[in-house]
Design brief:
Number of helices: 4
Radius of gyration: 25 Å
CATH architecture of the largest domain: Roll
Membrane topology: Multi-pass membrane protein
Largest sheet: 5 strands, mixed
Distance between the termini: 14 Å
Pfam family, one: SLBB_2
Low-confidence stretches: 1-28
Keywords: Cell outer membrane, Ion transport, Lipoprotein, Membrane, Palmitate, Polysaccharide transport, Porin, Signal, Sugar transport, Transmembrane, Transmembrane beta strand, Transport
Structural class: alpha+beta
Main location: membrane
Shape: elongated
CATH topology of the largest domain: Outer membrane lipoprotein wza fold like
Number of domains: 2
Helix content: 10-25%
InterPro entries: PEP-CTERM_polysacc_export, Poly_export, Poly_export_N, SLBB_dom
Strand content: 15-25%
Length: 213
């Protein structure tokens, strides 16, 4: 409540109230970080899924059903097959892993043909998308091609009632350099402003702060 000594004209009171509301509105919506540039807002990266710890790897060896198996990628990033122990899998694509298994199996069988299929995608941290702070369900998920900020917010169930969505930031790394960009999540989710949407990239981190009332 604003308290003034003596008599205050209605006109002056209206001006003061309007200025106060405008100031508070501006504080709630301004973001000190620049937005993602227009030319890169919907740019899609050249992306191949990379195996990570926690993935399930299905190995199929043509004509050798006894060698076909499904194994988990251990926390150390390695797998154990029916012929090979401690084979590094994390950080490789399914095609790269299949070719490596073919090379190793060629010592035991003639001209092996191997297919690798990934189940229960986890991926490596640099290809995960992470949400921290005031998302309804802060989480990390593997990046999917064509994933947008709106898709991500649906995954996390939107914002908490305490979130300051228009003060949220996107932390993005590129060629070893980290940049921070302002986001307008309130505009996107509450106002339906589709111009606040953007394409995500592997390794993006969305940080949603709590509002100051």
């Amino acid at each position: 409540m604003l308290i003034f000594p003596g008599k205050i004209s209605k006109k002056f009171l209206v001006l003061i109230t309007a200025s106060f509301v405008g100031m508070m509105s501006g504080c709630a919506s301004n973001n000190s970080y620049p937005p993602v540039s227009e030319e890169s807002r919907y740019e899609q990266p050249d992306y191949n899924y990379v195996i990570g710890a926690g993935d399930d790897v299905q190995i199929f060896v043509w004509g050798n059903a006894e060698l076909s198996t499904t194994v988990p990628v251990r926390p150390d990033g390695k797998i154990t097959t029916r012929l090979v122990e401690d084979l590094e899998a994390s950080g490789k694509t399914s095609t790269e892993l299949a070719r490596e298994i073919e090379t190793i199996y060629s010592e035991y069988i003639k001209n092996p043909v191997v297919t690798v299929i990934i189940d229960d995608f986890i991926s490596i941290p640099t290809q995960q998308i992470r949400v921290v702070g005031e998302g309804a369900k802060p989480l990390k998920i593997p990046y999917s091609k064509h994933m947008t900020l709106l898709d991500l917010m649906i995954e996390v169930g939107g914002l908490t009632e305490f979130a300051d969505g228009n003060k949220a930031v996107l932390v993005r790394s590129f060629e070893g350099e980290q940049s921070t960009y302002g986001l307008r999540l309130d505009s996107l989710l509450k106002d339906g402003d589709i111009t606040a949407n953007l394409a995500l990239k592997p390794g993006d981190i969305v940080i949603i702060p709590e509002a100051w009332f």
